[in-house]
């Protein structure tokens, strides 16, 4: 579960403002109740006194058992009185208890020494928002993937209908997303433009992030640009951060391989990223509009052998969905 540093920082800010709001609400309620029911202010003072006495007794007495029992009874009685007074005046019994969004971790983000579920939820919500912002494609999910756009007539070359093939691809991707773990395989999605590769990649990302994993999505062109900027325009401790983030995230999605401007630098970045992630056994999803032949002629053998030899390949068939959507105004 490795999210970006900025995601953690934002999540901590959210937790901190929850605690701050909780504290302010608690203080406001206490002021209101003390003003209306001064008896409760007195009870609270007595409760504070008993706590001090408990501490003193534990420290000074050799056998504090009897005294402690007395203090405990006194404490319970005061608390009961307080609850009764609150109830008689129309307040809920827990009106003066600490106010927090998550009672499990009291908005600290950790419970029993582990990350609390609320914290994981905040992290994944931020990561999902970031992903939607960075791709500009906010509505790609499994539920709105339209299998009915794929023709049922068998494809001439393979003899399989695009619909049948895409039902298998869809089922594989959905299962992959739901059962994703850092040990999941890398995927290679290939097929012509507009067959839903980006849609299914983002649908996978959405589910994987919701399950608490860190996902980064890049078009190949943007990834190269980011590493290029860092390598040639960044100095000091920040240098190397982008590459580490890209190679270290739980799942990297590299969209549209082949659409980038070809250069020796671009090829070496693609190789470094793919090779580092394979070496560290971290899954990557690569998608391309290129045919396997075009892929082999565009990239060196060291890149293609890694993708074709180590990735699970999924071929997309059909007619350009974007054209169909445009034609029928869907
Ligand atoms: Zn919590």
Q: Number of folding domains?
A: 2
Spatial strand arrangement across the major sheet: 4-5-6-3-7
The CATH topology annotation of the largest domain reads as Rossmann fold
Strand count, sense and barrel status of the largest sheet are: 5 strands, parallel
Overall morphology: elongated
SSE string, helix = H, strand = E?
HHHEEHHEHEHHEHEHHEH
Helical fraction: 55-70%
**Any idea what the CATH superfamily of the largest domain is called?**
P-loop containing nucleotide triphosphate hydrolases
Summed up, the helix count is: 12
Task: Provide the low-confidence segments as ranges.
Answer: none
Strand-residue proportion: 5-15%
Short descriptors:
alpha/beta; five-stranded parallel sheet; binds zinc ion; 2 domains; 330 residues; two-stranded antiparallel sheet; 7 strands; Rossmann fold
What does this structure look like?
The protein is α/β, with parallel strands linked by helices. The protein has two domains: 23-115; 137-327, P-loop containing nucleotide triphosphate hydrolases (Rossmann fold). The chain has twelve helices and seven strands. The chain has helices at 5-36, 38-60, 65-88, 117-135, 162-178, 197-210, 220-233, 241-248, 264-279, 292-298, 301-310, 321-327, and strands at 110-111, 114-115, 187-190, 215-219, 251-257, 284-288, 312-315. β5, α9 (264-279) and β6 form a beta-alpha-beta unit. It is elongated. The two termini are 37 Å apart. The mean pLDDT is 88.
């Amino acid at each position: 579960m490795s999210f970006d540093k900025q995601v953690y920082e934002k999540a901590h800010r959210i937790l901190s403002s929850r605690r701050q709001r909780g504290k302010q609400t608690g203080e406001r309620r206490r002021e209101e109740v003390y003003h209306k029911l001064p008896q409760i202010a007195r009870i609270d003072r007595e409760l504070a006194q008993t706590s001090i006495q408990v501490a003193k007794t534990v420290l000074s007495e050799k056998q504090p058992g009897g005294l402690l029992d007395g203090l405990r009874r006194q404490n319970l009685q005061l608390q009961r009185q307080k609850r009764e007074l609150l109830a008689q005046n129309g307040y809920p019994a827990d009106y003066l208890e600490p106010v927090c969004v998550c009672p499990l971790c009291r908005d600290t983000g950790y419970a029993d020494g582990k990350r609390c579920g609320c914290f994981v939820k905040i992290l994944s919500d931020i990561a999902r928002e970031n992903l939607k912002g960075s791709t500009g494609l906010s509505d790609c999910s499994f539920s709105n993937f339209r299998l009915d756009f794929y023709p049922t007539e068998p494809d001439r070359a393979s003899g399989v209908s695009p619909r049948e093939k895409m039902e298998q691809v869809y089922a594989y991707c959905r299962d992959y997303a739901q059962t994703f773990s850092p040990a999941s395989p890398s995927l290679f999605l290939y097929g012509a433009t507009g067959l839903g590769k980006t849609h299914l990649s983002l649908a996978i990302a959405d589910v994987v992030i919701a399950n608490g994993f860190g996902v980064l999505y890049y078009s190949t062109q943007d990834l190269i640009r980011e590493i290029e900027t860092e390598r040639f325009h960044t100095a000091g401790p920040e240098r190397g951060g982008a590459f580490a983030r890209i190679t270290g995230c739980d799942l990297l999605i590299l969209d549209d391989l082949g659409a980038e401007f070809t250069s020796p630098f671009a090829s070496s970045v693609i190789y470094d990223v793919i090779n580092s992630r394979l070496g560290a056994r971290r899954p990557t999803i690569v998608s391309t509009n290129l045919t396997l032949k075009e892929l082999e002629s565009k990239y060196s053998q060291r890149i293609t052998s890694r993708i074709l030899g180590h990735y699970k390949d999924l071929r997309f068939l059909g007619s350009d969905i974007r054209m169909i959507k445009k034609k029928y105004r869907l």
